[in-house]
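Trying the structure run again after the queue cleared.
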Amino acid sequence: MIFNPFEVAYRFVPYGTEFDPQKNTLVLDVGMKTVPGIIDHHHPEAEPECTASLIAKYPSLVLDHIQRGEIYKGKKGTSFLNIITHRLPDFDAVSSIFLTLKLIETGQIDPAMKKIARYTKLVDSATLPKEWDLASTPYAILRALFLRIRKNDETTSRERVKEGLKFMNFLYSKSIEGHEIFVNKALFSGIDRYQRAIRRAEYDYFNYLNDLERGQILLLDLPLATGEGVKTVDGLVVRNPRSYLLKDWARRDNLNPSHKQGFSFLMTNFGNRRFILGVDPAKGINLRGLGDMLNQKEANRRRELERPFAHRWYDGNCPFFNFRIIDSPQDESSLAHQEIVETVLKFGQRREK
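Done. Tokens:
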């Protein structure tokens, strides 16, 4: 178990929130900087690493900011540390918190911590090998565990951290014992809550088939990541997906896409409040320029509505994502679903299937 002789106070903020270093505070997977005290990869100057792999690569980003044994003491002598991350923490956020606390505890990055960081980088970059049994991966299991938490944002965020730290500690302990943790279904045998999570992930494939039946299939010419030429790929658009592993099943689907090589582009619409667009990193393509088109349409629409445009579409402009992912504004887009689809079609200059 992690033993830290201090209390940790968590704060959860919107994605993309910027911070400057603060005493006795660590900002993880948010903050838009990579400096001691703030470890984030969502900015153009970052290295092509996720937050967890940055911590493993540069432990000084933590240790130089929070000197071991010198954590702030409150009026009653209680030591505490502030950790800030984004709302609804994901795999990278919770693994980053785990690695940070373990690093403060031990003062070093050990092989098991490096292994968790390497796995997290695969997860956050969406490059888990497609031949792996998806349902029994730590990624799918933790996502299934998170699905059980259905409360308000603040409470859900806190419980995700609690659940995530427990799970990361399990992976860490098993790695210390010499077990393979990347893909090892037997690792979770005999643990009822984890086996239930695996079954939920396995059943999620049928949710994917339902989403596929309701979805809109596109053919798109998308730019090569090298910057020269385009590649014709299959795309899938789904409103309110029921499958929580939709992206992963879609990219593994070699039956339904016309090219029989998975859906390389995916657009999801969550209640007309959040739109996420992304491409498969393995296909050597990106969406460079589509974010600019959406931001221009968003600006025009907001002028018509006299609505402030304080939050832009995020276009994946960082070395880690290389324009492979686009996320709608934090305050929700003013564009309608079909307008976004039409913008995608114009960008890809192809057609619906």
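The CA atoms of residues 25 and 82 lie 5 Å apart. Worth checking whether this holds up in the mutant runs.
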